[in-house]
Q: What sequence folds into this?
């Protein structure tokens, strides 16, 4: 009766109960010892497996694979359709190249002594097998996985097509249509300084950007284009809407640029709140790793690469202007991580100061940097000249704060 423990669905309580009912106490002790030994071995093997994912802190892809193993995450399975109509449509879709290709390509022998550019089958096969299957499909909508898996079957055919095209100096029409790709301008920013309510230069700069995008086959999505106005005057005049391609650009109070939330008041509460929210979501994975009995060095590596890196994103830009409430929210995440890992971690404020010093030293060493001239030494040669600021907002920005940190060393 005690052999029921070898089945996957059986539990320790079931085996103990069945063995106890049978009255065989010796078998009960043996089964309990074997089960405890198997559990220890399984935990040890599982721990070694998990640790293997986090040995290299620079390999983020391997680390997230370990997270998926810990959380038992399984990607949804892609179901394949068995509809005959759909399969016929798929055949017609990939067979359209023969219909569109009206040029009859025939092989011709090169002239004696003429060296013609040609491809080898081995080179084409090697190129197909090196295709990154994680990249999106091209305009022909053929997945990269299909090209890589069928490299041996497609190599000779594609080599014949390429060499024939080179010999005849004719490109098939399907190749010509496949090269047309529509591109969008992304992460493009125009900054203008308006004085005396004269925004002519700013609007002219926007118009030049629109014309440049049109000449370079780039499309501007006006619906996703936002305008933010930073004006600290008490009496703010009305702002004429900005138009791009006869569409008005929306004026917003805050926008997200390269992962940083920028507001029209130049405060960073919204940005720090977003960073804290992302960091708290990743604390769940840190707790799951702690339950898996991973050692503190691996937990620290995960914290620094996935949690601390989020909270310190562009920290040299906003660390000087953060309020006490913002620092408190950020430090609360650090204290939670310290309790989970069991060791002390550097505070976000200390990290921010170190990042500011590092960036300031890089600017000082780089004579071509636009801000290099702002870091000038006094006659003593030991301290830097402070930047005069009339507002606390500018005083807490990067350049004045970096000079104060350099002088305090």
A:
């Amino acid at each position: 009766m005690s052999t029921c423990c070898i089945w996957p669905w059986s539990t320790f309580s079931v085996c103990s109960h069945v063995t106890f009912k049978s009255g065989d106490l010796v078998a009960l002790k043996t089964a309990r010892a074997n089960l405890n030994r198997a559990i220890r071995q399984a935990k040890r093997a599982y721990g070694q497996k998990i640790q293997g994912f986090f040995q290299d802190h620079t390999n983020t892809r391997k680390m997230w694979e370990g997270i998926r193993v810990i959380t038992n995450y399984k990607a949804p399975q892609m179901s394949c359709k068995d509809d005959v109509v759909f399969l016929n449509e798929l055949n017609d879709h990939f067979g359209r190249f023969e219909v569109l290709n009206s040029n009859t390509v025939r092989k011709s022998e090169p002239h004696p002594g003429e060296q013609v550019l040609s491809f080898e089958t081995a080179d084409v096969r090697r190129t197909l097998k090196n295709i990154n299957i994680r990249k999106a499909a091209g305009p022909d909508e053929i997945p990269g996985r299909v090209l890589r898996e069928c490299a041996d079957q497609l190599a000779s055919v594609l080599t014949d097509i390429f060499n024939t095209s080179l010999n005849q100096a004719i490109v098939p029409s399907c190749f010509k249509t496949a090269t047309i790709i529509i591109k969008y301008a992304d992460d493009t920013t125009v900054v203008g300084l308006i004085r005396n309510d004269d925004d002519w230069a700013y609007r002219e700069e926007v118009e030049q950007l629109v014309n440049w995008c049109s000449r370079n086959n780039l499309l501007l999505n006006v619906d996703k284009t936002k305008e933010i106005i930073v004006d600290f005057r008490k009496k703010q005049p009305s702002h004429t809407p900005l138009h791009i391609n006869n569409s008005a650009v929306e004026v917003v109070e805050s926008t997200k640029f390269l992962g940083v939330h920028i507001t029209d008041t130049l405060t960073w509460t919204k940005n720090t709140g977003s960073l804290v929210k992302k960091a708290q979501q990743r604390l769940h994975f840190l707790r799951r790793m702690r339950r898996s009995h991973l050692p503190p060095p691996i937990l620290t590596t995960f914290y620094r690469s996935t949690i601390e890196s989020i909270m310190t994103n562009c920290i040299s830009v906003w660390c000087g202007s953060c309020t006490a409430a913002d620092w408190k929210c950020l430090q609360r995440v650090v204290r939670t991580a310290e309790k989970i890992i069991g060791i002390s971690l550097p505070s976000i404020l200390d990290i921010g100061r170190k990042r500011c010093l590092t960036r300031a030293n890089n600017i000082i060493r780089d004579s071509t940097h636009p801000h290099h001239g702002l870091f000038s030494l006094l006659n003593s040669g030991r301290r830097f000249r402070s930047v005069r600021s009339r507002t606390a907002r500018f005083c807490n920005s990067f350049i004045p704060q970096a000079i104060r940190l350099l002088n305090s060393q």
Summary: Residues 25-53 form the longest helix (29 residues). Strands lie at 183-184, 218-219, 226-227, 243-244, 247-248, 250-251, 254-257, 260-263. The radius of gyration is 32 Å.
